[in-house]
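Q: I have two molecules that I believe assemble together. Could you output structure tokens for the complex as a whole instead of separate predictions?
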Amino acid sequence: MKSYRTILKTELKLSLRGMDMLIFAVIMPIIVLVVLGIIYGIKPAFEGASYTFIQQSFGALASIAICAGGVMGLPLVVSDYRSKQILKRFKVTPISPVTILIVEVTIYFLYALISLLTLLAVAVLFFGFKMQGSILQFILGWILVMVSMFSIGMMVGGIAKNSKIAGILASVLYFPMLIFSGATVPYEIMPKAMQNVVDILPLTQGIKILKSATLGLPMDNVLLSILAMVAIALICSFVAIRLFKWE
Amino acid sequence: MEDVIKVEHLSKSYGNLKAVDDFSFSVKRGKVFGLLGANGAGKSTTIDCVLGTKKADSGVVSVLGMNPTTNRKELFGQVGVQFQETHYQENIKVGELCEVTASLYKKPVDYKSLLKKFGVADKINTHVKELSCGQKQRLFIVLALIPSPQVVFLDELTTGLDARARRDVWQILSKLKANGLTILLTSHYMDEVEILCDEICILKMGKSVFYGTVPEAISKSPHDKFEDAYLWYTDEEVTQNEVI
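A: Yes, here they are, computed for all two components at once.
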């Protein structure tokens, strides 16, 4: 426990010193929220809708930090620490190298949490946001999306041959999901054909869950999305654990 | 005297390449053991197998009477390790690296006094990457000593150091040895091996070609300088030429 706390403190400092996660996981979602707020204001999502555009987008915005930490932050840090032999160094101490992986997961969890809270504060204060659905359902969905995205990241970081390959894979996963899954560009304004294509992205499914929970829509509609998220989490975790390369 | 490190019939292959081939040696308490050989001779693989960071194909390893794989937690509370080209987090500072390292052990030595002893106490708020090579190596010795170890493994500690910095490291190691620490080191510098090591083993393509003291190595070779003797043991061509 003492090791975990000390490593967490140091790794947090290092992460903040790097600035990139602060920008991509905390500041960027706020900017997207403000831009959408300025464009759509507190207008209903569509004519006759019982919720605003911002309410409809909130779940998507909350997933930006999860996506940044899960498929960009985690793979990069894991492969970097392996190539720097930091994981190997832990193997010759009384502490398991798993500890430092848990620390990294904690850090990206914290970024996602801070992003969620700041988004909530800005949305409530400036755009009249109200959670229409169940808060518990939203939190469960948020955790499910996080577990699923983090397991993708752990798998990529754990099995990528080196930092360079991890970086390429992370970019291939991160940028399409950031732009096309509905996280930044709203899914609703995409043409139907495009929606069908982007449905293949894991985060698109995750966002559907969060959206449903925020708006209080029946969860039966997103049952398939929930199953997809659970399947991804199970498969990627399994692969990550079985094939993880420590050096 | 008890064997702190005991290795029997260690073998390790990568595919068809025999990196270490039926290698046995032991290091007694308070002794400095030098593992020598050209790059690729099997030094680092041997250290990896002894520490359990690589799995040996066959052979028995014990360190402080323990198996490094099954007694990992207990053993590595008493062992200090410095890998070849030790790396660290990109933006980490000296003090932070020491603090994290200390947090891994039950009874760590006060790292601030260690930093002071090794003349890098004023660097505590400096980024590790900004240290000079000599300062870095002294920091890595500090890290290896934080657990208050009974035995330390130092892989190419002085590679890349200038003459002055190497002398400083020798002095430090001599003092540690005088305090009863057992040391296993690898090195490419025969002058330092001659000064520091009680016993050496010369590896060539994974096989031990000499095992004994430095004077023995010289007397069993046709040379009277250790460096020449070392080259004689490791270099096939020289041997053949001299036979001719």
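A: One point stands out. The interface with chain A takes residues 51-53, 72-74, 76-77, 79, 81, 83, 85-92, 96, 99-106, 147 of chain B (CB under 8 Å).
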